[in-house]
Amino acid sequence: MQLSDPITKLAGIGAKRAEQFAKLSIHTVYDLLAFFPRTYEDRTKLTDIAHLQVDEPACFRAIVCSSPTTSHIRKGLDITKVTVADHSAKLKLTFFNQPYRADSLKYGEEYYFYGAVCGDFIGYQMNTPVVERIDSPGVLTRRIMPIYPLTAGITNTVIAKAVRQVLDNCLSEMPEILPEQVRRENGLISVQEAYRTVHDPETVEDLERARKRLVFEEFFIFAAGLRLLRERRTVLEKTAYANTDLHGFAEKLPFALTGAQKRAIVEIINDFRRDTPMNRLVQGDVGSGKTMVAAAAAYCVAQNGEQTALMAPTEILAEQHYASLSKLFENTPVRCGLLTGSMKASEKKAVRAKAERGEINLLIGTHALISEATQFSSLGLVIADEQHRFGVGQRAALSAKGTAPHLLVMSATPIPRTLALIMYGDLDISVIDELPPGRQGVDTYLVDETMRKRINAFIRRQVEEGHQVYIVCPAVEESEIESLKSAESWAETLQSTVFSDLRVALLHGQMKGAEKDAIMSAFKDGEYDILVATTVIEVGVDVPNATLMVIENADRFGLSQLHQLRGRVGRGGAKSYCILFSSASDGDTLARLKALCKTNDGFQIAEEDLRLRGPGDFFGTRQSGLPVFKVANLSLDPSILKRAQEAANRFLAEADPVSPAIKALLGRIRLLFPPESNIYN
Ligand code: ADP
Ligand code: MG
Q1: Which of 434, 542, 543, 563 to mutate to test the pocket of ligand 1 (most atoms within 8 A of CB)?
Q2: Does the beta carbon of 564 sit less than 6 angstroms from any atom of ligand 1?
Q3: Beta bridge partner(s), residue 546
Q4: Kind plus residue range of the DSSP H or E element containing 80
Q5: How many degrees, rounded to 5, is the angle at CA 117 between CA 113 and CA 119?
Q6: Measuring from atom 9 of ligand 1, which residue has the nearest CA?
Q7: Are 542 and 286 in contact (CB under 8 A)?
Q8: 340 within 8 A of 513, measured Cβ to Cβ
């Protein structure tokens, strides 16, 4: 058997089982080995029956002391009963729908069991415990039992038995990625040992060692991938721009730039004067005016006869940028174009034709920008707005359209400095640490249901004063699972009850692009008082007249996300507010939400978020565009990350570029980074 074989090679796995495994993304023997338990149960200790605790699962050894009987209660329900005993006590066992137990459990014979007793003073019993013969090697009892994520039809036992076969037959084939020296220097166990331990740990300490090794490996691959990205960029050349005079741009501005905006623009222009492509991240809190910095860059690029592609994460945002930038560039030589997925095919074709002929200087759009069909006559600059929604890969794919264009990445997700240096190690960083003048912080309050009436009155007062209100819900439609507010039904409820005299609109991501656009621009034009929405409005939407942001089930969102949402208000001159509704009672959750009430500083919030709940909010999800780590955690394992990064850098610098070790490493990098990263060509 080989790691690349389909799992049907394993005993007991046929076509039907394979289909179930496929639902867990397990297709090959390797997939099974790389399928990690979500937790473990300690089944190592044996307990006397007399010492079993109610509802606490435990392992014990006992003799069957009655003949099992099965009764057919009704269709679909068979109950098998048997009594077992050890030296300390007797216990009644009941098996549901396992009639074969009547034959397999033999009177007078001994077995291992694992389960939890239930019952009260009338008598204890145990329902459907795990059973194992005493001569079995101990797959289900007497060990630290891995508990795997499951899907319909597959039990933990099925997975555990399949994994055992793989461990026994082809673990030795697992290739070692980490060079021997790196392992020795960092005290890391071998890959085979790590995988065996993950699936079959002998002690909890072993498990920790295995985890450390796998975390190191993931970071090593990640760091090596980043380094390749960086190396590739530094060898590129680009003709320095001769014309970097921005007076024509400055004249068009409706306001004076802040000092921080000017600094960022100067840094960008300095990059343009060099003969290598720029790779710059502009980090600035929501509302700090990043768009103008992007506009200045695009203007300069146009002055030098090249084109800019500005990529936004949502259609709403792309359209908004298009509207404001085409207005800004009226009567200048900069011609703007818009390209989004929901445009008509004929419109898209026309815009693309113009871009290809060089008749558009600044093309603004969504993912459609990076599709095959879009060609530029001379792409000089790629701007990715709100980049935490864009993958490294998507950026790279767009860059590949020009001959080494400049790259400007704009992010409103403040990242603690230590992490930023690692995550964006391939970029230079400009920070816009100043808000345009006259901005006041958004007053933020955490409330529960008892405040509902007063908040409703507050909403009404804002509207009466001529302002507008956002209400954000975590779900689109009613869900059965939890008491989550859904945008659809909440909008309906508000419109038909408390706010029947106000104009309530609904906006969510499942709507068609054109529909969303119509509602958003109507809201912007003041045709609605209240916009009930999902997080589609999270990024970049600009309605200065909106002064109140109400967030339902606020505990369902990450801090950074809440901070983004809050950034939708406080964009005009009027005092603005944010209300966080939550009925959560646990201390951690409340501490998180209160952190938001205390400060408007995105960097402080990011630090706090990282400290309180780890980086899941802006890292670790597919959405972040960063690799998804299986075992590693950027906030929990920063010291391992640092060491792995050093080791990877040294290894890449010293290793023979055509050695099998490098080849194997590249293979793994390819798996970790999204396919379109094209970091190898
Ligand atoms: P960001 O993208 O950084 O969140 P935006 O670029 O959308 O912020 O700018 C937020 C708002 O501030 C916009 O309405 C913009 O017109 C305005 N703005 C930007 N720069 C300035 C400035 N220097 N002075 C006054 N208003 C500004
Ligand atoms: Mg923005």
Answers
A1: 542
A2: no
A3: 468
A4: strand 77-85
A5: 150
A6: 289
A7: no
A8: yes
190-242 pLDDT, tens digit per residue, is 999 999 999 999 888 899 899 999 999 988 988 888 777 666 666 678 899 99
Tokens matching residue 320: 């908004």
What tens digit of pLDDT does each residue of 516-548 get?
A: 888 988 998 999 999 999 987 766 577 989 999
What would you report as the CA-atom Rg of the chain, rounded to the nearest whole angstrom? 30
Average pLDDT over residues 72-82: 91
Summarised one tens digit per residue, pLDDT across range 109-160 is: 999 999 999 987 677 899 999 999 999 888 888 888 899 988 878 888 889 9
Residue where the block lists tokens 């050093």: 646
Spatial distance between the Cα atoms of 100 and 500, rounded to a whole number of angstroms = 63
Q: What are 620's two structure tokens?
A: 């670790």
**Among candidate residues 480, 545, 488, 481, the one with its CA nearest the CA of residue 511:** 488
Residue with tokens 């300490």: 205
**What three-state secondary structure class fits 118?**
strand
In this structure, are residues 583 and 449 in contact, taking their beta carbons and an 8 Å threshold? yes
Query: How far lies 261's CA from each of 303, 421, 433, 545, in Å?
Result: 20, 21, 9, 24
246 to 226, 278, 381: CA distances (angstroms): 34, 18, 16
Round to whole Å and give the CA distance between 677 and 681: 10
Give dist(CA 615, CA 558) in Å, integer.
Answer: 10
Q: Give the type of residue at 116.
A: A
The best mutation among 283, 291, 321 to test binding of ligand 1, ranked by most ligand atoms within 8 Å of the C-beta, falls on 291
Contact 283, 354 (CB under 8 A): no
Per DSSP, the three-state class of 301 is helix
- How many Å lie between the centroid of ligand 1 and the Cα of residue 438? 12
HEC secondary structure over 564-580: HHHCCCCCCCCCCEEEE
Where does residue 302 rank: exposed (0-12), middle (13-18), buried (19+ CB within 10 A)? buried
Is the CB of 542 inside a 6 Å radius of any atom of ligand 1?
A: yes
Cα separation of 448 and 553, whole Å?
Answer: 9
How much distance in Å is there from the Cα of 280 to the middle of ligand 1?
20
CA atoms within 13 A on the CB side of 397: 19
Instruction: Put the strands of the sheet holding 443-447 in their side by side order.
Output: 443-447, 577-581, 546-551, 468-472, 530-533, 504-507
> CA 629, CA 621: separation in Å to the nearest integer?
9
Q: How far apart are CA 661 and CA 118, in angstroms?
A: 55
User: Quick one: tokens of 200?
Assistant: 């079959």
Detail the DSSP E strand segments found in 453-514: 468-472, 504-507
Query: What separation in angstroms does the CA of 551 have from each of 503, 560, 592?
Result: 19, 14, 15
CB 374 less than 6 A from any atom of ligand 1: no
Predicted pLDDT of residue 538: 63
Cross-strand pairs, 444: 578
Please give the Cα distance from 514 to 628 (Å, whole number).
32
- Scanning the structure block, which residue is given the tokens 């001769």? 242
